[in-house]
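Morning F.,

Quick status update on the modeling queue. The single chain you submitted on Monday has been processed. Sequence for confirmation:
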Amino acid sequence: MRRFRFRLRSVKGFFSLFLVGLGLCFALAGCNTAPADTASSGDAASPAQGETVNLTLVSYAVTQAAYEQIIPKFAQKWQADHNQEVVFDQSYGGSGSQTRAVIDGLEADVVALALALDTKKIEDAGLIETGWEKELPNDSIVHKSVAVLVTREGNPKGIQGWQDLAQDDVQVVTANPKTSGGARWNFMALWGSVTENGGDDVQAEAFTTQVFENVPVLPKDAREATDVFFKQGQGDVLINYENEAILAKQKGEGLPFMVPTDVNISIDNPVAVVDANVDKHGTREVAEAFVAFLFTPEAQEEFAKVGFRPVDETIAQQFADQYPKVNKLFTVQDMGGWDEVQTRFFDDGAKFDEILAKVGAA
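C-alpha cells below.
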C-alpha cells in the first residue's frame, strides 16, 4: 500500500477524506514495489520513457471487479508500446463520497463515477475541463446498466414490474435521492416508468408518491439500502442496479431479481481524465491512453462479464443473452439532462421534497 500526498482544501475536506478513507481500497497493479515517493509529487515534468509512471484511478465500488481484470491488460500493452511500467493506485467507494474526495484533494488522474452529475461537480470545481464528454466515444459513457427489482426468495408478493411497487402491502427499499446518486437513478426510473410510457407529470407524481409511501426507511446510500434489505431483512423489494444484482448472483450472494423490460432507465456511467491533476503529475498521455483503452472490445468484454452493459455493439451482441432487451429505454437527456433533473427533482424544495412532505402527511 502506498501513501498519498493530499492537499486539503478545507477542514470540511479533511473530514470528508477521513470518512472516505475508511472505505478506500488502494491496490497496486502492474508493479507492487513502486517507491512511495513516486505518487503525486507535484512535479509537472513527465516521467521519462522507461521510468515507472503512476496513475490514480478513483471509481465507485462495484467497478472494482472489472478494473482488476482491465488494468493488467492495459499495463501490459503500455509496457509493450512504450517500454514503460505503469502502476495504478485504485480507490473505490460510494460515487458521491469519491467525488467529494477528489474535489477536496484526492489527486485522481482518472475518475470513473456512477453518474455524470458527479463528474460535473469535479468540473465545476475547476479540475476537469469543460467539454470532457466529447473527448471520448459515446459521450464518455463507458458502460451502462438498468434498474432491477430484487425480491425475496420465491417472490411472495408477486412483484412483476414498476406498478406493483405501489401496492398497499408491498414495502420498497431504496436510498434517499437527496444523498445517494444511485437513488436518483431509482427515482427517475419510477417517474419515467409513467412519463415514458404515455403518462403525464401529474400521473408520474401520483405513482412516485404512492411508491414512497411504501418506503419504510430512507438509507443514505445504495450500499446502506442493500444492507437494510439483505442483512436487516426489511422490505419486500429492493430497487437496485442490474450490474450489482448480476455480480451478487455470480458470487452466490444474490436473491431473485427481475428487469422491467417494458420501460426502464439507461444508467449511464462516464469516465473522464482529471485535467488539473494529470497536468500536475505529467501523466496526461498515459491517462488519456487508459481511458481510450476502456472503450476497446478487450476492456468492454471485462465490463460485460461482471454485469455492466457494454457500449461496444459487438461485445453487446456477444452478451445479449445476459442482458434482456428493454422496449423503451430512456436516458437522463430524455428527462431534460442532469441540470434540469437536479433543479426540478432534487434541489431543496423541489419535487422530491414535495413528495416526502406528502408522504409524511399521509
